[in-house]
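Practice problem: predict the structure.
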Amino acid sequence: MSDELSPHIERLERDGCTIVRDAFDVATADALHADIDRLERELNISTGGNGFEGRATTRVYNLLALGEMYEQIPVHPVVLSLMHHMLGQACLVSSLSAITIHPGEVAQPIHADDQVIPIPKPHAPVTANSMWAITDFTEANGATRIIPGTHRAASSPVYGQHYDSVCAEMTRGSILVWDGGLWHGGGANTTDAKRRGVAMNYCSGFIRQQENQQLGIPLDTARRFSPELQDLCGFGVYKGLIGHIDRQSPSQRLLDPESPSGMLWDRT
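Answer:
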């Protein structure tokens, strides 16, 4: 695994992003594609109402609560290893959503995913994200636009300002991984077909998650998760201290009374 990760780590440190090609198979892409279509129909998902979410873009949030097939996404071995490198072993699922850019969508404003976090830049990564290509990502259909190296910038981009960027084209089955400080945005879709991806976003264990996993995922659903996924969703305790309930981890208190607490005080 270390030989596989090394070139990705080098690109992440230099450019702020990397593409893991052939990361999942066509059958998985097809199954996810079909299920997201189902969710959009059943949940009556409509396009966004602003320039950031996209007026010709549909988004399905909180996917871990909506089907077992999404449980494989946060624990992808290569991507999760890269997240551990950037964010530490105790990183969390920040959000998991489907993003579909429909024909006629314009380019999303360039932004950094960490720009709402009030700490001076540049800084070590506290958020890091990935985009699963469920369809091919091309310049014409709205592939993610990136500005390599901007994860080291001393500021965030000015919202709505034009910046020259490059297109992160990739075939379906690939995963784009990037530092949360990287300047980027969704592209314009000038084709007659939709561009679909699954945004799998992570954060450090001490950062508040974008989607409230503990309230958004029914406990009966979370009990089905592997211990690794439960911890990723925030049902563990960060470094044996942060996030406990009466000296118990949320997983012990709410999901499995037999699980160990692992509290810091027990180790001192």
